[in-house]
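quick one
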Amino acid sequence: MNNTVDVIVQQKINEQLFQKLELAYFCVDHSMRVKDASDNLIDYGYEPIRPGSDIEDHIDFMIGLDSHTELDLPIVASPSGIPISVSLLPSENQLTVLIVNASTQADQRQLLQQKANENELLVFQQKKLMVQLEQASLELEKKNMQLEEASRLQTSFLSGVSHEFRTPLTSIIGYTNLVKQDLQKVSQELVPRIVGNDDSPNYLRAVQRSSKHLLSLVENLLDHGKLDSNEIVIRPKATNILEVFEDVELLLKPLSNTKQVELRANIDLPPKALAVLDDSRLRQCLINLVGNAVKFTDIGSVTLDASLTGEVLHVTVEDTGPGISQQDLEKIRLPFWQGSDTGKAGTGLGLTITERLVELMGGELLIKSELGKGTVVEFELPAPLVYLDEPANSLEGIPVKPLRILLAEDDTDIADLVCMMLIERGIEVDRVENGALAVEALKKGRYDLVLMDIHMPIMTGYDALAELNARGDTTPVVVMSASAVDADKAKAIELGCRGYLVKPVDVDDIIGMAGQVLS
Ligand code: ADP
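structure w/ adenosine-5'-diphosphate:
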């Protein structure tokens, strides 16, 4: 490239650059007098500048600056409001000042600033949300604790209520049994006429059935408290399943007789078959299901089918009642849910508990229903069969006879009842009404077994167990309590009790347990 071309190119580049950057300039001497100024300064809102004039009269950002210092001013605003960037370039004779349009830069800076502001705002909001979240979580924790407390109170209330119910029910069921046995003897020996073909008068059986029904309701209440905490325990034992079904039929027949409902029971079970099942839980499920079928059916029939195939028990409860809508079928298993227009009393717990119990026993509860057509509920349970020559509850093999039992029970009715039942079976019984007296009695005499209530005045059964442990007394103690709460049982076992019976108990339960403990 020759020089001429060079100069032209240089000029072109300068022009382009000047245009692109919108470059304006002025030069001043070292006394700040204008030497030269570009015309396009007016594009930035500056008035035309006369050479020789004082630059501070024209351009305000020059006020106070000196002509020897090289300087880049941060973006400033020109008189017409355009952001400009200014560079002061001193040389020997003059100071050249370059002005460049910095709108893009300013925009970017503003954008950056805006982003920074937004960021700060976000951080602030985030912090605020964190504080709110923390507060909410504290609130939630507090609410949770309140709920837990409420649920604990509910459970303890329910177990308390259930406990209170069990004690009188023990008396009712036990005494009715005794009276029934007495009357059976009298009727067989003396006056068969007064009781007709039946073994015992109907009214006594009605009292017994009602008490058992009441007991199953109490059991539902107690179990609801245990549902969440997985505290329900299944206790399988050799059970005559036919008896369980017959019991349920007898229990619910009177209710069906009060309406135009025929209760049919097709129980195809071997009479002496013993299966390993929790009889009281099975009974509870059946009472809930057959009870519902009878309760909700006003006209028609309720059919209870039971059969054994191999070692599986099949149960179906079918009714011709009002049926359940598809919508309601989805809610029916929720605790406390009840159909709105049934007009029947209830707690809304029966199905919830039955479903859980069936599951715990290894089955599944199936409910089929159609509005206006009736309901079918069915389940199957594993029922391993056992073959025993002798009844399960037997004292056979116990070496020391006659058996001497010390009964510690503060409820006089129950103490009378248990004494009567045991004495009738040839067992010697001494009774005391609190734990302290039990400990005293054991110091003085020898007993094969102690039957000990837990909640007693002066000294509880727990304290008595602890005292006996401390004294090294090895007389086996069987606790007989109205509390079915597992924690109570665990505590008693920890204190060394050898067996735990939940009231109401009958004489066979006591003898069976004594047999287990003493053999
Ligand atoms: P409860 O019977 O105490 O109300 P359940 O849990 O046993 O509580 O039943 C819940 C609801 O399911 C009942 O209120 C009723 O609406 C409905 N239900 C249960 N069994 C039947 C049935 N056999 N026929 C019609 N409705 C039923």
